[in-house]
Amino acid sequence: MRDVAIYGTGMLQVSEHWDLSIIDLAGRAALEALNDAGLERVDALLVTNMLAACHSTGQLNLGARVADWVGLHGVEAYKVEAACGSGGAGFRSAWLAVASGAIDLALVVGVEKMTETPGPEITAGLATAADADFEVPMGPSFVALNALIMRRYQHEYGWPHEAFAGFSINAHANGARNPLARLQDPITAEDYRKARMVSDPINLLDASPVGDGAAAIVLGPAERVFPGGRRPRVLVAGSAAATDSIAIHDRNAPLRLTAAEKSAAAAYAMAGAGPGDIDVFELHDAFSIMSALSLEACGFAEPGQGPRLGDDGSILPGGRIPVASFGGLKARGHPVGATGVYQLAEVTRQLWGEAGACQIDGARVGLAQNIGGSGATIVTHVLRQA
Amino acid sequence: MHSTPPPEVYVAGVGLTPVGEHWNVSLRELALEAIEAARADAVGLRPQALFAANMLAPVLSGQTHLGVLLADFAGLRGIEASSFEAAGASGGVALRQAYLAVRSGLIDVALVIGVEKVTDRVGPAVEAARSMAGDADHEAVQGLTPAAQAGLLMRRYLHESGAPEDALAGFAVNAHANGLTCEHAFMRRGITVEDYRQAPRQDDPLNLFDVAPLADGAAALLLTRREALPSGGRPGVRVAGSSVATAATALHDQADMLGLSAAEESARRARLQAGVDPDQISLFELHDAYAIFAPLALEAGGFAERGQGWRLAAGGQIGLTGPYPISTFGGSKARGEVGGATGVYQAAEVVLQLQGRAGKNQVAGASTGMAQCLGGAGATAATHIFVAE
Amino acid sequence: MEVSRHWRLKQQRYALVGEVCPSCQHKIFPPRDICPDCGEEARTTYQFSGRGEVFSFTTVRNAPTGFEESAPYTVALIKLDEGPMLTAQLTDLGEKPVEIGMPVEMVTRRLRSDGDRGMLVYGYKFRPALKAA
Ligand SMILES: [Zn+2]
């Protein structure tokens, strides 16, 4: 197995791109990443997406479709899907392909087009990540499934709702410095308290906004990126994926992200790193409860103590473990099947020192964790400056 | 990380469910049956990663996230799992990713599971869903279905090659003859050239026997390194070539639609990796979801000259004892068309042939086999070459 | 309209029929073919009592397609007396506030409809237990 480096990234603003189709979105991000890498051609294109396959006016075979659109005629191409964890899963597939030596250069493009579909249909589409026979027919929206976890967590560990405010406030503050963020307004603790309830206890400021978006990353063998180029070399130092049951009701420990624990442990081991080495952490804050659970699973807090890190400033830029440095899902936005690619592109830019106003000073090692469903599929990556 | 040569990849076990209308079985139960069969065949090897192949579950069954669903249901909770989709080529691309994972050295045992469940829904809903494999903005929106794409290709092929109207009869006759003796086939009856000539027209010029029947099915494969292969009398089967290529999604965007460029390119690369010529390939499982794809794939694969593929069928050369056996278990035409599971069925069938386990469908002396599935009208092609050792 | 799919699930949806693992005695609902605890085959049916308690709950205001007419409605994780958990709507709540730990029992109600002329899907919901079991 050979070392793999990141050659280029591309990201569009997460927004309502009413003028761009899903193919346009994917194509623009792909071309931006290719330009950034100084390449015209790659050997494989992996598209990550969740929702285009869910409704009958949608699009299958996105790999071939996008490949043709961006002029990569004949290239190996297909779609990787693991619900909202698709982006991380696709990046991992691309990494494996390059690491195996069978593929030299791989491009992973995450894309999602969500704003031209009516609300209930999007809600139903997102619910396909859950168990279609035993969860979905009972009518829980995806928000509701997360609300079930959050209420029980508060009940067992005694946290009041306000204890989660720090995650949203940090995300919005960081998003306000990121021109590619969906939401660019800071919020206050007062805003959080007064926010409209969505599915109790989850209110509007606990939940991330969906949107149209696309992000892309080019991967290639590390030996061809020489130190001393225009930017530091960023390696994929650790990569792992794990699962839990798809349905929350089937889990032995519904308040723990066991798939995150497993994949983080494996990614740390591969990278020879631990929580103490991480300078920036792009976590999957689709809901504020997931920030707490993800921090616990990755070794930054004891079980039940995640909200403390949101409260005591640890997660802020300059804190012990900065999270959501570009706004996270909460403010950058959550174009579901593309989110994992956004996270990895953001960590890469942090390690390149190209994060602009979102830069975390001295970031050398970064962690990205992408979650599919309510904790069912979890993909964790450690990136390192070398 | 050191530069040791990458491990060679072998098939440790295969499992197939009969293709049919399985009203009493759910998607996950169908998949489990194939997974259990493959694990039993591999003497209980426990996979570390699951690669799911499926095309229509999101739209027909309201289920994405199949990787984790199937891993958990199969008693493999916790292992890495994702889904791969390239329409009808999904099975081949999931196999490709599993192959890359084992070849990287990181995964010791990979499970590929292809599953498709279509009979819970009725005709028009299924046709609309399958049409999503075309260009949604410029083909599907015109009401163009996969059958209609095949019709366009077939008419043009007959026109350009000057082949007679019943030129493709031999493909249906061969597939049905092989399906007759295949235990997992959906259509188990023989047909004659006369039956073909009398068959009712569907989407002109396609007749009933130019169209493969769509049904439910699941197939599974376990891949591993040579050292981990279960000991036992049967020959090891190595994945000697693996390649995926693409072309434009819309037929109208393909520069040479009858050239099936993705199939040609992926077959060429796979042959190069395996170091074999078309003449050294003992059998070819091709994707005859519509009969026209059989001659096109034979031509693209180097088995026939351009415009001459139909002659192989007319001349009886594609039978089990001919020089170019195809659809040896019935192919999509008689085994049944199983969408995203097709590529996994094909690979499992090639393995059974190479290990001499094909029963009445055995191709004598089969040592090298090729499997190729197509996504859309030739937009994606995944080709794998297997060699018996 | 997936008639066969709902037909397959009728035993579970109407009668709460699950399984018990013959190897480790783990009670299983929703049913599955392999015991998630010990990995052995589990196909022995088991009739659940339909009694349990609320493990967690929430209210759905932005309902998915097919559920719009019922919104807002309350969805819960129910821990069955026999051990396993399931996802279900709460019904017949009246003025009684829902609480974690509240005893509930199963009833059969309409879950969703596919438009005006579509199929109606029935299945289990849970209501506050009428009397201590
Ligand atoms: Zn058991």
Bound small-molecule species:
zinc ion
Number of domains as seen in the coordinates of chain C: 2
Task: Give the tally of structural domains of chain B.
Answer: 2
The tally of strands of chain C reads 8
What is the chains' assembly state?
heterotrimer
Major sheet characteristics of chain C: 5 strands, antiparallel
CATH topology of the largest domain in chain B: Peroxisomal Thiolase, Chain A, domain 1
Instruction: Tell the overall outline of chain B.
Output: globular
Question: Helical element count of chain B?
Answer: 13
What is the CATH superfamily of the largest domain in chain B?
Thiolase/Chalcone synthase
What integer is the average pLDDT of chain B? 95
Level-1 CATH class name of the largest domain in chain B = Alpha Beta
Strand order of the largest sheet of chain C: 6-5-4-7-8
SSE topology string of chain C: HHEEEEEEEE
Ranges of chain B where pLDDT stays below 50 over 5 or more residues in a row are none
Structural class label of chain B: alpha/beta
Question: Descriptors for this entry?
Answer:
heterotrimer; A: 386 residues; alpha/beta; Peroxisomal Thiolase, Chain A, domain 1; 2 domains; 11 strands; 18% strand; globular; B: 389 residues; nine-stranded mixed β-sheet; binds zinc ion
List the helices and strands and how they pair.
The complex is a heterotrimer of chains A (386), B (389) and C (133).
Chain A: E1 4-11, H1 22-37, E2 44-48, H2 62-69, E3 76-81, H3 86-99, E4 106-112, H4 119-127, H5 142-157, H6 165-175, H7 189-194, E5 197-199, E6 202-203, E7 213-221, E8 234-243, H8 258-271, E9 280-282, H9 288-297, H10 306-311, H11 328-331, H12 339-352, E10 365-372, E11 377-385
Parallel strand pairs in A: 2-3, 2-4, 9-10
Antiparallel strand pairs in A: 1-7, 4-7, 5-6, 8-11, 10-11
Chain B: E1 9-16, H1 27-41, E2 49-53, H2 57-61, H3 66-73, E3 80-85, H4 90-103, E4 109-116, H5 123-131, H6 146-161, H7 169-180, H8 193-198, E5 217-225, E6 237-246, H9 261-274, E7 283-285, H10 293-300, H11 309-314, H12 331-334, H13 342-354, E8 368-375, E9 380-388
Chain C: H1 3-8, H2 10-15, E1 17-20, E2 27-28, E3 44-47, E4 51-60, E5 73-80, E6 85-90, E7 103-113, E8 120-128
Antiparallel strand pairs in C: 1-2, 1-3, 4-5, 4-7, 5-6, 7-8
Bound molecules: zinc ion.
Residues 21, 23-24, 26, 35, 37-38, 40 of chain C line the site of zinc ion.
